[in-house]
Amino acid sequence: MTAKTSSRHLRLRLSSLLLLGLCTAAVHAAPNFQLPVCGKSSTQWRVSNWSGHNPAHAADINWGSGDADLGKPVAAAAAGTVIKAAYDTNTGYGRNIVIDHGGGWRTRYAHLNAMSVSKGQTVRRGQKIGTVGKSSAKYTFAAHLHYEQIYNGSVRDPIINGVTVPYGGVRYFSAGDCNTSGGSATGTVRTNGANLNIRSGPSTNYSVVGSLANGSKVTIYCQTYGQSISGYYGTSSIWNRIGSGKWIPDAYTYTGSSGFVAPRC
């Protein structure tokens, strides 16, 4: 093999690895996390990712001072499945909820005054899951929400409404209304012009039961993992149920997020 040929093979291999990395990143991209509190308010919420916090990169979220936040509604930052809703007696978390959003992403909501969801329950983005409190088996402090965004077991600097709160930094966000809808989400079919096949299940191995034109609006009733598909929005194994026995790949659906936006099926 000549030096020229070897160099060409190296470039091709690097290009292939880069492409693979981009596809992997698309599958595991963070959900479109919203502010994890809800309810109309003329005052913004302060999100503090302060140096020295335990664990590092977790955030404290406040509306006012002292116990002004006590009892205010806490919301799911993204759709997912509750994998924990309990009072910790061996940590400082107190009443805390952990939600699995898929793709290695989880969120934790701690020191709650009350919890309104249970383990195994699916939740919508913006759904009320509890209220702000100051519960803890180890610490005494004013009411606030302790919030963590976790990827593959590691707490990350939180991204809220597309804005990163850096370690040691503070950002302000306005709360939106609590999501009290039936749990569905909306999407738009995006292809390179061709119609998109509707399948009877979350894989191309299932039969075709219809088709949708590019630009069609759909209601997504729930989502699940299925066959990995490379489409208009990259590569994803998420599939969207748009009706009874009707499925389309998320890789061809614009939802505003590369993660889950509706309850799990």
TrEMBL record:
> Per the UniProt record, which residue ranges are transmembrane?
none
Q: Which GO terms describe its molecular function?
A: metalloendopeptidase activity
**So which residues are the signal peptide here?**
1-29
Q: Does the keyword Disulfide bond apply?
A: no
UniProt keyword annotations, A-Z: Signal
SH3b domain residues are 184-257
**Pfam families with a match to the protein in the record:** Peptidase_M23 (PF01551), SH3_3 (PF08239)
Highest taxon listed in the record's lineage: Bacteria
PANTHER family per the UniProt record, alphabetical = MUREIN HYDROLASE ACTIVATOR ENVC, PEPTIDASE-RELATED
Identification of the protein by name: SH3b domain-containing protein
Q: Which organism is it from?
A: Marilutibacter maris
